[in-house]
Amino acid sequence: MKEIKRYTVTSALPYTNGPVHIGHLAGAYLPADIYVRYLRAKGKDVVFVCGSDEHGVPITIKAKAEGVTPQQVVDKYHKIIGDSFRDFGISFDIYHRTSSKTQHETASEIFKTIYDKGKFIEETSEQYFDEKAQQFLADRYITGTCPKCGYDKAYGDQCENCGSTLNATDLINPKSTLSGEQPIMKSTKHWYLPLDQYQTQLEKYILEDHKDWKTNVFGQCKSWLHQGLQPRAVTRDLEWGIPVPIPGTDGKVLYVWFDAPIGYISATKELFGLKDAAWSDKHDEYYLKADRKPQTSAASWEEHWKSKDTQLVHFIGKDNIVFHCIIFPAMLMAEGSYIWADEVPANEFLNLESNKISTSRNWAVWLNDYLVDFKDKQDVLRYVLCATAPETKDNDFTWKDFQSRNNSELVAIFGNFINRVVVLSHKYFEGKVMPMGAMTDFDKEVIAELQSYPAKIGASIENYRFREALQEFMSLARLGNKYLADTEPWKLIKTDEERVKTILNIGLQIAANLAVLAEPFIPFSAKKLASMLNLDNVSWDETGSIDLLKAGHQLNEGVLLFDKIEDDVIELQIKKLMDTKEANEVANKVTVPAKENITFDEFSKMDIRVGTIISAEKVAKTKKLLKLTVDTGIDQRTVVSGIAEYFDPESIIGQQVSILVNLAPREIKGIESQGMILMAEDADGKLRFTAPTAKVKNGSEIR
Ligand SMILES: Nc1ncnc2c1ncn2[C@@H]1O[C@H](COP(=O)(O)OP(=O)(O)OP(=O)(O)O)[C@@H](O)[C@H]1O
Ligand SMILES: [Zn+2]
């Protein structure tokens, strides 16, 4: 085990083609933030860096679609994303961006070093070219069928269905996303990182030295290495990006995945460069903390990237594993002077109400929207996303679960305990901490349990088991709640005030411990609680003690930490999602092609009439069927119709309908159905009656 002197913690650079959603948070940002806040509370040296990933094809596609420049696209989302991270309490030391000068310099320098060492392969090859757009088609400029899984919307660099990393030339039936045309082949020169030459070194690095990585991460790496690594192009024929830093390469830029991870390095560089003079000038631009410089004694950014005693930790989602565990380390191996990731605690994916979160389909809970709709409730989302984080397998976020975790855990357990102990202290002892008297055996048991929590929570965090850590934390809140419920100070106050002093002292010590231990998870509430308790500057290592608040210490007024979230608030969010779903269905619905021609005689065989529904009831034990009685003008007959999901029986009595009366009767669920009601099916799948625009006599023929 290496001795760790300092930590460099990174979260995946969010791609600036949209705001951040709850999937991003659960995958790469919230766990990192919890980890870093914990390290800070432990007094460790740490920098936490991130920034916007601003290059690459999707940005240029978006810019084109919106009629603006790529720079305008990234400026817009850099601000939306940066603001929302800050307001959500993601405590980056710097939120940088890859379009910055420092990034251009750093990425160019690293490329140049590898180039000068002769470690790239230079190769002219045939690449797809769109003749209409006069452009080479890299990455997302080309789509086609994935050769691995057959998905027909795979991109030139990756299949989002099976997760395979692809080369554009692997695609079956390639099409340009610029013109929709089939591209031609044209030769062009590119630089390749020969990953195959690093195979042995990577195998040792991962398969031998990092058997401790999370199973999902280790498993993916193993399968990559097992397949055998191939050289990978690290340049592209594009305008938007970091120009290839060698002469005669006009119109070529660095591949976005070569550029992006270097963003972590340049962010750290920028941070250290700003330490003095420029510190206050750059607060807004880089989301620096006015009140807190990074907690590190390192003299330069290099110590955080080149020292063997630095622990480098990348927080990412599962689709980024190969880039962080194989490609980025291989780049740094080729460069030669950097350390490689020590830990890559990648998460699986969070889904939303059983569907994959998607920026393009607007199936997401957007952080910037959440912060408006749930003002001052950052901690509720932080709590729920941590409690349900997809640490070992994909997981689902639902609004009902969000509501119930708030109401039955945060409000009913944690909030309730804090409220009781603070309110009672004010009521009985003017908000003063009373001295501890004789302890009962139960008191001693509770205190012993309290003492075990900081180490348990800490160990879970250090092992990247944030859900478990949060559960331990809540167990301590539960312990506090139970302690008061069992000792019932509100009853004892009439007979034994001395005993109540001890009970509330113990209760307040638990509350004070919770204030410190809560900080990594729910920092806004931790701060409120600490201020209620008039508690400051307690470090993680001081917790577990029953001496955090001295006898005679004055508490401040109590405030509620959490409040109940009502049904209507949740229903509104669910409705938003339903509206999105409907809009997507309508957008995706293709009109069914026309059927084959028929003769007039064939048409005339159908006897369609106008009738009126005169009674309707649900068919027992079915979801879809209604039993209708229809006055057809000829007779009154029974029709079984599959419309129960769309209409209440009572609401359709009196409705005029079109009915095919000479359809041969048939038995449905034991009822003879004599005819068929004609319905129109809308794009969203909803059924509507087809009826004359004004009332007509029952039995009128439709011809
Ligand atoms: N649903 C999700 N669950 C967990 N992690 C996710 C999810 N979606 C994205 N991530 C992670 O968030 C980080 C930033 O993602 P990035 O900006 O690259 O967006 P993305 O993966 O293209 O997502 P989207 O397609 O939804 O915009 C990455 O590490 C990615 O793995
Ligand atoms: Zn695929």
From TrEMBL:
Show where the record puts the motif 'KMSKS' region.
Answer: 356-360
How far does the signal peptide extend, from start to end residue? Answer: none
> What keyword terms does UniProt attach to this protein?
Aminoacyl-tRNA synthetase, ATP-binding, Cytoplasm, Ligase, Metal-binding, Nucleotide-binding, Protein biosynthesis, RNA-binding, tRNA-binding, Zinc
Q: Which cofactor does it need?
A: Zn(2+)
Q: What is its EC number?
A: 6.1.1.10
Q: Which reaction does it catalyse?
A: tRNA(Met) + L-methionine + ATP = L-methionyl-tRNA(Met) + AMP + diphosphate
Recorded name of the encoding gene? metG
Q: Cellular component GO terms, alphabetically? A: cytosol
Q: Which HAMAP family match?
A: Met_tRNA_synth_type1
Where, per UniProt, does this protein localize? Cytoplasm
Which of this chain's residues are annotated to bind ATP? 359
* Species of origin: Solitalea koreensis
Q: What is this protein called?
A: Methionine--tRNA ligase
Q: Which GO terms describe its biological process?
A: methionyl-tRNA aminoacylation
**UniProt family annotation:** Belongs to the class-I aminoacyl-tRNA synthetase family. MetG type 1 subfamily.
Q: Where is Zn(2+) bound in this sequence?
A: 146, 149, 159, 162
* PANTHER family assigned: METHIONINE--TRNA LIGASE (PTHR45765), METHIONINE--TRNA LIGASE, CYTOPLASMIC (PTHR45765:SF1)
- Gene Ontology molecular function, alphabetical: ATP binding; metal ion binding; methionine-tRNA ligase activity; tRNA binding
